[in-house]
Amino acid sequence: MSDTTFDLVVIGAGPGGYVAASKAAQLGMKVACIDKSYLGGTCLNVGCIPSKALLESSDLFYRAKKGLGHHGIGQGEVGLDLQAMMARKEKIVQTMTKGIEGLFKGRGVTHFVGTGQVRAPGSVAVQGSDGEQVLSAKHILLATGSVPVELSNLPFDGKHIISSTEALTLEKVPEQLVVIGGGAIGLELGSVWARLGAQVLVIEAMNQILPEMDQEMARQLERLLKRQGLKFLLGAKAQSAAIKKGQVTLTIAAGDQERVETCDLVLVAVGRKPCSAGLGLEDVGVATNERGQVLVDTQGRTNVEGIWAIGDLVPGPMLAHKAEAEGIAVAERMAGHAGQVNYEAIPSVVYTHPELASVGASEEDATAAGHEVAIGKHQFRSNARAHCMDDIDGLVKVVADARTDQLLGMHILGPQASHLIAEGVLALEFGASAEDVARTVHAHPALSEVVGEAARDTVS
Ligand code: FAD
Ligand code: NAI
After folding, report:
1. Which residues, other chains included, contact 268 with Cβ-Cβ below 8 Å and sequence gap of 6+?
2. Which residues have CB under 6 Å of ligand 2?
3. What are phi and psi of 375, to 5 degrees?
4. Which of 407, 412, 419 is nearest to 456 (CA)?
């Protein structure tokens, strides 16, 4: 019989839960972490990491296929071995999962495999293959994440109408893929399969892809993705699907028009919903909202003493690094330290090519918040390094307050935007002005020079 008394029991071993468990153990707490499926959660197993592995491989394939002759590199026929591409992705996932196993071992976190359910404040039941065990703990952390939203008129069948999970493991490249939802998943996985040869149509309900992003940047990305062969139908919704002989016929409402599209695969990527059902929350009295999200205060505490919640399960952006930051902060608070998450400076990146990265306010948000905005922009095509890299599309856009010069937001559409945005995040974190960024010396030749130039442009 294993030990069943802990300082902290975490339910869910995603980037929120495993990071919290590890941090709490490092701070001297006796910790258990329960997961019913896998270490690393959605992010590591069916989210961030496998999608990025496929994005990297498909990008290489696309570039090689287009030809490297202008670099003076000759080559023969470029072929696709999808099985090898998938095997590489799986290997990365396994390597990273082993890393978490090692981390838990090193820090003395007890890992339970099973389904966790809160029985009472301080008491969690784990239903595993060996039956039920009840654990007691001073603190309980709910970190059960989220699952894909299903459309009632287009239910998942795992074969013709699929979620992101299946779209990461296809055995062949679809001929025609329709993606419902022009959000992060739709654009990333749509890009993967378009690069590998599928004809991809993205259907988005709003009049802009990535409706949360700065309008100008989202429009620019749409233009560049169209150049790569993706098609878009904005302000449209799929009404119904009929499946016959392996083909899906979709009826789509676009404004006051109806149109029909036929394809061999439909990826539904219209958001994710929190995993709060079956956790025993109603019995214990933990408050949730109408979307099933667990309600927490600014410190991650639910309304029930000793029960905390983080990550995709609670309101806020559904991002791995947000879950991680919350995991660290709640562990620190439980251990009697100060924990802090700056929700004003959480970056968000869409890993298309080019990548679109953003932090802080968009131009529209800043204007709506009453700022007189100063906008600075600079294009990657004027940057020598971008030319050397053969990657000149996109721009950096800086949003500042015109009166005070305070930096309000930074938006980067361009090569390696996911790395470059760190400068904007740090600048916001330190309350920088646009001039602070402009006067920061950037290495030459580097893509980051475009960030400095865009900040400089806010004053001109
Ligand atoms: P999760 O990662 O969902 O982990 C929750 C864990 O809880 C799971 O392992 C689950 O098995 C377990 N669980 C649930 N219920 C129970 C229970 N009752 N008992 C025991 N265990 C339970 N975010 C980014 O920041 N960057 C990206 O590039 C990115 N790419 C993504 C790509 C895709 C295709 C998808 C789907 C998501 C992506 N995300 C990305 C989002 C990211 O995966 C999530 O924001 C993140 O995983 C949330 O972490 P979490 O710890 O809150 O929950
Ligand atoms: P999302 O919320 O990012 O985008 C969903 C899109 O679908 C929205 O643009 C919405 O307007 C549209 N939509 C909703 N209903 C529709 C309908 N019936 N017909 C057509 N369009 C419809 O959700 P997504 O892409 O599924 O991603 C889920 C979560 O995972 C997000 O919160 C995202 O942040 C996270 N994620 C993050 C990534 C990253 O950080 N790079 C990558 C992938 C996912």
Report:
1. 148, 149, 150, 151, 154, 156, 161, 162, 163, 180, 181
2. 151, 180-186, 188, 203-206, 211, 237, 269-272, 317-319, 348-351
3. -110, 135
4. 407
Q: Which residue's entry shows tokens 């991002």?
A: 319
If you measure from the C-alpha of residue 278 to the centroid of ligand 2, how many angstroms do you get, rounded to a whole number?
A: 25
* Cα(443)–Cα(429) distance, integer angstroms: 22
DSSP code per residue over 215-265: HHHHHHHHHHHHHTT-EEEESEEEEEEEEETTEEEEEEEETTEEEEEEESE
Other C-beta atoms closer than 10 Å to the C-beta of 262 total: 12
Q: 416 is written with which tokens?
A: 């390696």
Q: How many helices (H) and strands (E) does the chain have?
A: 14, 22
The token pair at 288 is 């949730």
Ligand 1 binding pocket includes 12 (Cβ within 6 Å)? yes
* Ligand 1: centre distance to CA 15 (Å): 7
Domains in the chain (CATH in brackets) are 5-147+273-341 (3.50.50.60), 161-270 (3.50.50.60), 346-458 (3.30.390.30)
Ligand approaching nearest to the C-alpha of 293: 1
Q: What average pLDDT values come out for the chain (460 residues) when binned by 10 residues?
A: 89 98 98 97 98 98 93 89 98 98 98 98 96 98 98 96 98 98 98 98 98 97 98 97 96 94 98 98 97 97 98 98 98 97 97 98 98 98 98 98 98 98 98 98 98 93
Which ligand 2 atom minimizes the distance to the CA of 319? 34
- For residue 63, give the H/E element and its range: helix 48-66
- The tokens for 87 are 């095997």
